[in-house]
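ok so I'm stuck.
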Amino acid sequence: MNDPRLELRHALQRNPGDAMAWIMLAEHELDAGDAQSGEAAARRALNLRPGHPEALARLGRAQWMQGRRDDAVTSLRAAARNAPQHPGIAVWLAHALEDIGDAEGALEAYTHAYALAPREPQLAAYLLAWRRKLCDWRDLDALAGQVRDAVARAQASVEPFAFLSEDASAAEQRRCAALRASVIAGSVRPLPPAPQKDASAPIRVGFLSNGFGAHPTGLLIVALLESLQRRGGIDLHLFALNRDDDSAIRRRLHAAANALHDVAMQPHAQVAATIRRAGIDVLFDLRGWGGGGAPEVLAMRPAPVQVNWLAYPGTSAAPWIDYVLADRYVLPESLSADFNETDFSEADFSETVAWLPRCFQPSDTTREAAMPPSRGECGLPDQGVVFCCFNNSYKLNPRSVARALAVLRGVPGSVLWLLSGPGRADQRLRDFANRQGIAPERLVFMRKQPHADYLARLRHADLFLDTDPYNAHTTASDAIWAGCPVLTRPGATFAARVAGSLNHHLGLESMNVADDAAFVARAVALGNDPAALQALRAELAARRSDSGLFDMDGFAVDFAAMAMAMARRQRKGEAPAPLRGPAR
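replied:
not stuck anymore, here's the structure
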């Protein structure tokens, strides 16, 4: 595969006054993850053609990649002014406006881009995803239908992470991810195969993520890594795509690893080379299609075994990912008698499955939930049941919110405590409640808090009401750890079964219900029976200690066994094969 950057550089040596060639070079540099070179090329183009919208757009994209968000907005606004009918520039402006917190401005830009090309499904997908985040549910079904149809027809490689919020099957999710993977596969040159290691050589396990800090990923894995380090037997290497945020979690992660490699803002090929030089046997991708990751790095095959785990709750559908680490609840085995309610199984995943004998999601068990501020300081009434749902706003949808409002209707004096969303999302939710006959003030919103403060506030919550088809993941773990039971309706995809897996492995299967009617009935019954609710919370507290769900030392034993089995098979020249820990 020829590198178009080399050809363009040679052409520009012969003709350095070709502004369009500089623009094309900027585009290819940015696609390769080299923001600095992309910016330099864009500026050369602008010196030749001042105000050229395509050059301004590449400059804005380069600034965005380097974290210079305000500069990016300035450049992209100028590009949009100079090319008001260019939908691609409008989309990039929308991305940048998202990042500086101008949520409604981003909505306007996405809407404008879609209006310019309403038959373009990728633009429909961007608009759909952002409307979900803003709880702007206008034309939701029409946009969702257009996007799902485009995936079915292989007409667009829409973002797989956003597609998880659609009411789509696991097979559709795999198709969506495969379309995205095919685009990357066509533009990335893999490294030569890694040298074969001797069977007795130490096993090195790597983790690639943009979440090594005060981030949900860091919070989930830090105690596990500390346990793995105490246990020994494998070398741990972290490859951080994010800058050091100087958080306590980052320092703990650094201390728990044999090495933390800072690869933030580096070109994809340089990140891949760093992983290869470290001699990693098994590389866990802790971001996948979740945004902010580096699938191009994984596509270069820097490690001989590569694993999808934790952050992206679905199949990568990528030929460069060998395994997915799961449990038997979130990803049932075929023909399993325990999961007759769904046809979902490993057949919907491109990866070979490694089943842990416990819930696939670890947690930081060193945390302590402090005493919270008073109910009044949290905006809560002094009396009444507090139902909560601290899922991100894009997981909310008319069906899940209407279901939660039905619970409020059945429990007089209760409130629904939600995480505040971007822009006017909170007001839109209150308007929706009002149209459903629920007083808007019964919806209480919490601004995002530092994790310790958020965990403390969870003490005021009586019952967590989950969403679907994309349910609570880290938020469910947080709620359970803080003593708040989680009520969920497990669905037929990985993303719809994580809260169910937590309950299952906690031993609270009664909190996994079959349908919406059972969901409302269970929540209403608990809300109207203080003794039953208190008994449930007491049971949760007991099971939290003895169920094994939060046993990170046990998790470390199981995790290390899986990683070592993957590495040993590869060292013997054996292809990936399903790995099954003993059922618990």
